[in-house]
Structure to design on (619 residues):
């Protein structure tokens, strides 16, 4: 059995002394943790300095504002899995002090259990050694005798839920189920997340793993929360009505116990007026609102929001899949330097949503139809495909004398990760992008490739839109040229992605593609320009761009709005756009995402014309 990479995640807020004690305890583990992540929720005390100066050398994520426990743990888990390669994520608050054998006991139970375990938790005690009532895991109702005995053989108890006070999560479960809901802020975020993780998977409580939860008081879950009762009520309603963490039977069971606990809290409260007001607001917001997307909630907190967006894009994967990055970190490249030759690769991704006939036509256009043919074609099959596409992929080598390499990914990873896999396979410095449903005109590579060979790092072109019949063409989208490329990039993508030809080293130098719905190309190109890439666009259309059904629908919606916010935030943090530019972009571009599709289509055509786009009949 391979040794798992364990990354501990500590969420910190204004408890510098306790944070130091928690980090000391992590450093004293009999089985050392491999990495430590500290997510600081904009502390106003010395917590951030304590984290940065601690001997455990934690990876510190300093958020620009307090996102609560929910946001902190979402960021921490995403950082551990997406950036640090964790196999297991061990999460805890900054007032959690693990005993020296806490980690080794969790791992021992995991190894001893006969089967897969999605999450494990420790026994949580208070400072006097008694069990802490705030962190008591719920035993799994209806667990069979065999399930109980299997857990007992591993020194554990099967449970249905657990808290974020010493919870160890398998990265595969994170990939499948996603992250905590950040809009919960505090309370019930761990209950919702744990029950979501464990609805169809195994969770174990390990009494032999002990941590101390140093709360000020030994309080139970029905202690008077005052105004924070708002979060308890709102989040419980969200969970029961909008989350798939619980079955119908469990909703009834836990709903009844929740109401009883609320009544006990109200009866025991010394300030029932405050409690009633907070509860009513929580109830109203719980039924009239829903949790916002994580990237929207995390707007403005820093680069961590992009990490969350990247991980959540793969949350539906059946299993985690390793992706070879073209570059592990940013670097430099020799912009403007000529190359010795013009050998080049074509990089073409395909997934199950593509059309087989379109794929074959697009492939022919990029190979046999070209006046300057590529030296290889790398086709990335992004996950399983249907029989028709599979048949075309098998036939590709018969369609051309150009060498063809098909890179099969076992699961759909999304465009950015598929392109990263493909770039890793491309053998030549010059790489031309092509899409499965677009058509490269015969002179495309003969025009673009020599320019890249002479010194340009990226060269795009105008594209000619069409719907079904490639002979019935519509709008020509003309991109900016020369110095106008960098200026336009502050407000919009200055390249038409399926038209670009670039140097592989220039892409690698800025970290390659990173997932962001329909905007991974914009983010990449902005970073290339910021790094000094020598860029140009051809104003003649060299690609026929298929604008099929749903093209304008895909440019809108809350999910794409969240990507837009994450993009603008990232470009601002990296200094590519100024604050006024970012505000302008959010107002204009985010607003465009939310208008009805018909309005969006009309606005797009008008905007394209204002930027030099035209229909040939207009000339």
């Amino acid at each position: 059995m391979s040794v798992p990479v364990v990354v501990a995640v500590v969420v910190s807020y204004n408890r510098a002394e306790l944070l130091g004690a928690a980090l000391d305890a992590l450093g004293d583990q009999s089985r050392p943790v491999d990495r430590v992540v500290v997510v600081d929720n904009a502390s106003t005390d010395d917590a951030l300095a304590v984290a940065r100066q601690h001997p455990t050398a934690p990876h510190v994520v300093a958020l620009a504002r307090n996102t609560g426990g929910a946001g902190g743990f979402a960021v921490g888990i995403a950082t551990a899995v997406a950036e640090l390669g964790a196999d297991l994520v061990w999460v805890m608050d900054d007032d959690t002090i693990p005993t020296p054998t806490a980690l080794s006991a969790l791992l021992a139970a995991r190894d001893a259990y006969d089967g897969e375990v999605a999450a494990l938790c420790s026994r949580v005690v208070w400072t006097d050694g008694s069990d802490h009532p705030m962190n008591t895991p719920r035993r799994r109702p209806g667990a069979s005798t065999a399930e109980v005995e299997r857990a007992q053989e591993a020194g554990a108890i099967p449970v249905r839920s657990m808290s974020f006070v010493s919870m160890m999560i398998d990265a595969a479960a994170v990939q499948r189920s996603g992250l905590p809901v950040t809009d919960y802020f505090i309370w019930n975020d761990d209950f919702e997340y744990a029950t979501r993780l464990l609805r169809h998977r195994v969770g174990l409580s390990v009494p032999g793993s002990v941590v101390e939860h140093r709360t000020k008081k030994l309080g139970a879950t029905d202690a008077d929360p005052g105004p924070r009762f708002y979060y308890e009520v709102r989040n419980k309603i969200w969970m029961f009505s909008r989350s798939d963490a619980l079955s119908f039977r469990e909703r009834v069971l836990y709903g009844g116990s929740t109401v009883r606990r609320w009544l006990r809290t109200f009866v025991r409260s010394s300030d029932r007026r405050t409690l009633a007001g907070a509860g009513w607001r929580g109830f109203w917001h719980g039924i009239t609102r829903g949790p916002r997307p994580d990237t929207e909630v995390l707007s403005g907190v820093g680069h961590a929001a992009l990490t969350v967006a990247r991980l959540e894009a793969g949350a539906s994967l059946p299993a985690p899949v390793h992706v070879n990055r073209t570059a592990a970190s940013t670097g430099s490249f020799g912009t403007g330097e000529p190359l010795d030759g013009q050998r080049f690769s074509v990089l073409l991704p395909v997934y199950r949503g593509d059309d087989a006939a379109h794929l074959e036509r697009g492939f022919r256009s990029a190979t046999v139809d070209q006046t300057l043919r590529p030296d290889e074609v790398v086709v990335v099959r992004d996950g399983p495909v249907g029989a028709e596409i599979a048949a075309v992929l098998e036939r590709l080598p018969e369609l051309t004398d150009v060498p063809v390499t098909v890179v099969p990914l076992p699961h759909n990873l999304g465009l950015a990760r598929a392109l990263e896999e493909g770039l890793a396979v491309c053998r030549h410095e010059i790489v031309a992008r092509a899409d499965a449903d677009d058509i490269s005109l015969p002179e495309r590579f003969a025009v673009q490739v020599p320019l890249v060979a002479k010194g340009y790092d990226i060269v795009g072109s105008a594209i000619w839109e069409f719907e079904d019949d490639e002979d019935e063409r519509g709008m020509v989208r003309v991109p900016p040229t020369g110095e106008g490329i960098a200026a336009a990039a502050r407000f919009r993508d200055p390249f038409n992605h399926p038209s670009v030809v670039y140097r592989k080293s220039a892409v690698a130098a800025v970290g390659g593609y990173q997932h962001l719905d329909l905007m991974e190309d914009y983010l990449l190109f902005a970073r290339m320009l910021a790094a000094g890439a020598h860029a140009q666009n051809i104003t003649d259309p060299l690609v026929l761009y298929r604008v099929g059904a749903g093209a304008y629908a895909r440019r809108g919606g809350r999910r794409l709005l969240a990507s837009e916010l994450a993009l603008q935030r990232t470009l601002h943090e990296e200094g590519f756009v100024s604050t006024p530019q970012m505000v302008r972009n959010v107002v204009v571009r985010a607003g465009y995402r939310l208008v009805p599709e018909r309005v969006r289509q009309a606005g797009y055509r008008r905007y394209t014309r204002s930027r030099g786009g035209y229909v040939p009949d207009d000339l």
The longest strand covers residues 535-546. DSSP finds 22 helices and 18 strands in the chain.
